[in-house]
Amino acid sequence: MSEFILSVKNIMKRFPWGEGYLEVLKGASLEIESGKLTILSGPSGSGKSTLLYIIGGLERAESGEVTFQGELLNSYNDNKLDDYRNRRIGFVFQMHYLLPDFTALENVTMPALIGGESYAAARDRALSLLSDLSLLERRDHYPNQLSGGEQQRVAIARALVNSPQLILADEPTGDLDRENAGLLLKLFRKLVDHTGVSILVATHDAELAGKGDIAYNLYDGRIICSKGLAHD
Ligand SMILES: Nc1ncnc2c1ncn2[C@@H]1O[C@H](COP(=O)(O)OP(=O)(O)OP(=O)(O)O)[C@@H](O)[C@H]1O
Ligand SMILES: [Mg+2]
Predict the structure, then answer these.
(1) 149 burial class (0-12, 13-18, 19+ CB within 10 angstroms)?
(2) pLDDT, position 123
(3) Does 27 sit in the ligand 1 pocket, CB within 6 Å?
């Protein structure tokens, strides 16, 4: 029997627009299986980032439920929500949001230090992730001294440093060339197969969409499962 780390039920989300509203999510539902690579694809503007923000506790839906490990996200108090955002999940943003005054290594190390890790352990873990992502030689570069793809890989390493149970990656290959996109996919595959972490990737990259264990498609505010899970 499959086990779900997170489920999303009937999410409605709209943004005030002009005189009325722009309805983006119109009852979106999906399930993320533990230890699986799940892909959420859909055209640009379909609401993938919006849904990831809602799942990540960064944005509120009008209605619907997000359940993480059997508990409703809505029932979390501020402390629990902080812990969820900082330690349980790792968020790879579509815009990378690296801290400009810190080097690649410092950007990756920081969440581990904030999480209470010793400096030596945080640095070791950060170096190992930077190495997995072919960035060791760029560790002392500041974000403005890195290419777009390098910044993206630093942001990915940063999301992984606290060993979250769920990784939410928004268009993580958007700035990467084929070789580095392949490298990232290998890393994601290694993580799900060997550490049991669950990964949700939002992408409009059709090639990436085919590589997931489970694939969902977001269209006109709703989601259909196109691969992997048999829905009644
Ligand atoms: N704050 C906002 N106010 C009004 N409209 C918004 C706001 N944020 C997002 N939208 C609209 O909601 C829709 C969904 O946006 P979202 O960023 O979730 O799409 P996406 O699927 O991630 O697209 P992409 O593949 O281009 O990243 C878009 O049409 C966007 O213009
Ligand atoms: Mg997006």
Answers:
(1) middle
(2) 97
(3) no
